[in-house]
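hey team, just a heads up i'm posting the complex here instead of the shared drive bc the drive is being weird again. everything in one block, sequence lines first with there labels, then the predicted structure for the whole assembly after. its two chains so it's a bit long, scroll down
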Amino acid sequence: MRTGTTISAAAHVGVLLWAVLVLDVKPLDNASVESIPVDFVSATEFSKMTEGVKNAQKQEQPKPLVEKQGEKKPVLEQAEKLTEKQEIVTPKESTPPPTPEPKKAEPKPEPAPKQEKAETKEPEPKADPIAEALKKEEKKKPEEKPTEAKTAEAKPVPLPQKKPPQKPQPKFDPAQVAALLDKRDPQRHAATGDTINRTASLGAPGANAPELSQSELDALRARLMQLWNPPIGIRNAGEMVIRVRVMLRPDGTLAGPPSVLTSGHGPMFESARDSAVRAIFRGQPFNMLRPQTYETWKDIEVTFDPRDMLFRG
Amino acid sequence: MSGNSSDNTFSNLTRRRMLAMGAGVTAGAFAGLHARSAFAALKLDVTQGNVQPMPIALPDFVGGSQADSEVSRNVTGIITNNLRRSGLFAPIDPQAYIEKVSNPDNVPRFADWRAINAQALVTGRVTRQPDGRLKAEFRLWDVFAGQQQAGQQYFTTPDNWRRIGHIISDAIYERLTGEKGYFDTRVVFIDESGPKERRIKRLTIMDQDGANVRYLTRGDELVLTPRFSPSTQEITYMAFGQGDPRVLLLNIETGQREVVGNFPGMTFAPRFSPDGQRVIMSLQQGSNANLFVMDLRSKAVSRLTQTPAIDTAPSYSPDGTRICFESDRGGSQQIYVMSASGGNAQRISFGEGTYSTPVWSPRGDTIAFTKQGGGRFGIGIMRTDGSGERLLTDGFHNEGPTFAPNGRVIMFFRDPGGNAGPSLYTIDITGRNEQRVPTPSFASDPAWSPLLS
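-- predicted structure starts here --
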């Protein structure tokens, strides 16, 4: 019996200890993890991020896929139309001419297909519903586009490229252009989807907490540390801990003179007190504090404690 | 360092916040709305500051007449120079001033001074009274709080305008730093002139800023280690006259001199007791030296140490109960502390190298010393138990520390070596703000006077 009870007692104690240790560790981790996302997200920030993402996807995708910077403008304008119609209409026809031209210069091959795509994209919507007579008008438009390309890339080549593909479009159906276009479409969709999801996951938890965040507190403390010039050289400087109560308006300015809660007398106390009050006066407006959280920071008690920074700190 | 401390403070903060919230809840349950006004919603600890010179605006004092305005400007210049040299203040360039102060009695336009980032503002006036005396008045303003912090007026003879500047400097310094100033003081030192082989050494006194130099001896005898009396206008020093070198007493005002005591051997390293009534010194006996103290009124002499070693450079603690001195009784020069009445001495210096010329701070909390080691001489301070040793400056030859009366600044002399001679420097006990003190020629062995007023 005794051995049995001791074993069971020891086992229970062990289990309890293990549980206590584990339970102690987890809450600490959770607290620290949770606090981080709170810093980054607010309702306004989230809305801004989502808006920004939609625009950004369209811009970013064309850049990594084909060209780097020069042709952003045409891609932006045509992007919506392209996603719908590219596969069906023009891609197959337009490809052959660009392939011969790229041979002349190395950088050309990459831009050439893009330019063609851009060209094709615009003409495509028009070409499908409209007759060949409209193609003549299209020819005029492509001429304008190549000029843009020239300004961006300074390459003389694109002009001839663009003109021939437009006329031969029905004739040229090779697979190269079509393949390129097909690749672009799926990539764009995937990229857009990924970015949106990511931002949403980050933003969602933040919406729950409009509390004063760590970053705001740290910014407030940093501001006061920057402005606080304590008289640390004086004797007994470590005893000069000053507590000050600060009432703030929503705009971050002082609602009234700071009230010193620490009592004392003598020139050393006056010097320490004035240095603390001066830091608060100089710190306003405390615009790192958001008006949404005003209720939490309208009444602050600040303790200025120089004990850690005697002499050289 | 700062990162850790900020983390700590944050954890403190969160804990305190939780406690405060808990307290607020319980208090609210019992006391209702009253608890709301009693507790701030948010508590914040600021444990690190940004120590830097305080920007201060010192517009020229207003003068009553044309002649007075000249004096006014000079007084303002002295204050500005004093505060700048202290290293704790950064006087703002007068060209940046927006408001022109015409009447120092009016409240200044604080916004104008905030705009140039002045934290303190000094306004004042110097006028000549019908009886010929000068009247100087000043006001010290806290620019950000919008309040007057101090205001005083003084009367003096016109030729005393420099002291007026120093006294006002001390008043400003004390109000803003919380500590007595040290500007209305003088320094006695050994002025050294002539070629290196035949240096003429004269006992010299001047204001702490280098003005009003006065020679107290003619230079026909070698003088060393002058020390100020803390209570009278007297200096004690060592001089090589005829016969053995002797400790002398000199009255600055009358020029009267007398030998301290009548000893059979050489006496040296004198220093006054804090009450100015006694002089403590070393007396050579054979190859040894021991400490003696003499009462200046009764001429009674008492022996404090009796060792087969060289005990010298004694210095009293400000309360007069203890003495620090240098001794080689342990084999090398080290600093010892013992009771002012003698008895067992306790060694307090244990670093590498040798320690000499200990001086007890007027604050009582530290002892300054010269430390020699590795061919270098440094000036340092340590606590009176020997802990917390810090070197403030180090180099080829630094020696002879002396404290300003507030214990905040140390003056010493530095010899760069070669054909150059020594000169005087000051340094803050934090190790910041080393400044050269202007002297007419080479200078050594400084001793700082107590406050004159």
